[in-house]
Amino acid sequence: MKRSGSDRNTLNERYRSLQLLDDDDEWMEEPQCFSTCDTETYGSSMDMETTFIPLARTLLERERMTSFLQSSWVFLLLLGVLASVTAWSIDAGVQILSRLHWSLTALGEGWLSGYLLYILFRVFILLMGVGCTVILCPEAVGSGIPEMRSILGGFPFPNYLTSRALIAKCFGLILALGSGLTIGKEGPFVHLSSIIAQQLLNLPLFEQIRQSNDLTHHMLAAACAVGVTATFGAPVGGVLFSIEVTTSYYVTSNYWRAFFSSVVGVVVFRGLNSLLAGSYVLLFTTEFDALPYETFEIALFLLLAVICGVLAGLLVRSYRMILDLKVRFMAQFLLPLCGSFPGLSPFIYAALVALLFSLVEYPVGRFMQLTQHQTINDMFSTKTLTAHEVSNTTHLSIDFGSSWTSPSLIMNLFTYVVVRFWSAIISITVFVPSGIVTPVFAIGAVVGRLFGEMIVILSKGELSIGGYAVVGAASFTAGATGTISIAVIVFELTGQLSYMIPVLLCVIVGRAVTRSFSLDMYETMARQKNLPQWPDLTKQISYSLSAGDLMRDVPPFYLVRHQTLASIKHLLDVTSRSKKGKSVGVFPVIDDVRTMIMLGVATREELESLVVLWEFSLRSGKASHYTCVPMAGITADQAIVLSNPAMETLEVVDLVQLEVLSLEDDYIHVPRDTFASHVILLISVHKCPQLFVTQRGKLQGVIHAADLLAHSRRDML
Question: Where are the beta strands (DSSP E) in 551-644?
Fold first, then answer.
């Protein structure tokens, strides 16, 4: 829209002082003024300068300080600190509950009484976690990563980033992990960091950031990276992992924000651990040699990656099956059982899950009672599990070496995989905050260890079995989550690059195998919750389809360049409510029905303003049925001639001539042969609500954002 003449005159007056700087005559008059001034006047001006210059400097310094405090640096610093303190507090709370669990179990005088106390504690703590989550904020249930992916894609989620969700997520996660549920923390931590970022944005100090949609988006993206970093203590891998799981398209200029806040978070987290423990150690300590594997073992690693990829795909498919069974079970049994109290169904379901796995895990063996962190440390060990010394154990009891080998090491490892496979799937269906990375990482580590132990038995050779556990953990997690960055996280967690080549190869293979017959876990969760998410352009078909393949036919509601007022009113009336309860907001304008040449678009607001203006003019007597009524942005020679509504049945003589401006940024058009990948980028990145499809200027159809979402759900993009 071009500026009118009056706007340009106002603009010229406003910047007249800047134009004078280029005028030599004006500059020559300044010294002449000083030559005519007397000494008294000059002295008084010097006194004023002496008084006001320090004041001006003080005000300038205050302004700079205020600007700095309101900057992104301070925001990201606070975000990293607060997110890390929150994550550390949650870990501390879980550790306290775990110790309380073992202390309570030890109170039993015999095996049976200890078994009973073990079960009661798990059921009671999990019920408390369900209560905190469901009662305080139901939006806190689940992972949080699929929802944040939708939010960063531009889709609003009310009540998802509120303070109530923060409280529910924190206490629900502490109680769920403390109950022994087989869940992870990466999803809830991402959600928690995003809530903290949103609450910081609500402060008056960061109003300037909040007013910018782009900056708000960047801060939430950085918060997701901080959440992943707080989970693993891996800033580089955390940033890359967050990019893979929460965004379809990432603005690379936002890298520095994510890395800065993540590094701050890691420093704070490690500092808190050092204050309590006296020193900081890596999450998983390994002692591999510089080159701990032979060349022929690459083939074994790839075979392990294929096995892990298949198991990861089966895990995702089993999760979908369990979800369907859960829905039918609750509808057919739990809801009728609850009767007039349907709110009790989440509690009954959680109690049944806790009871089931408590009954199974306790009698199976002591190895099933290890935490996931302890299990992974055991699997990564370069020693055999029978050679654990008391000084090297990280377990709550004195020695767990015999736990893995009694009655059989292979049998125990296999049992752990089977039980944890199903417990991880079922646990994330409970109504509490939950993640998936840590459970699948532990399962993958045990699968790799089992594979390595069997290779040693068959070959009767000496291999670094812990390396197979590292490769198995990475490839299994890559398949389940659909990420490659898990390899970087493994390097940071172990602090070694000895298995860099096998890990990178197997992560790619594991992900490819899983992707060949299954979606990843986060995509499955998003579809189960029917969350709107943009296609990520990973399918080859996105580069072979065109806009013509995605478009709908010519929209039924469009305007011809020459239109009667009565027909406009009728058009607005019939499009006020569609079948989905939403009104049509944009109307394409064509030159003629025969040519269908697209001239531009007219919004509902513009048309409604036109009708109101005309009717007001008629009632006030300021216009006749043939008065030219100028619209904003249209000059007098482009005036709009309004017709008498009573003449609509007559031959069209006096028409509403719509001179629409050039196509607006939000309502652009694309040629029919435009690739689908470009259409997806325009709608998802530039947030275009719809695209009109043309062929040599002729209107052919329209592509709505909802069309892309529907195609994505049907795996067509």
Answer: 559-560, 562-563, 586-590, 598-603, 628-629, 640-641
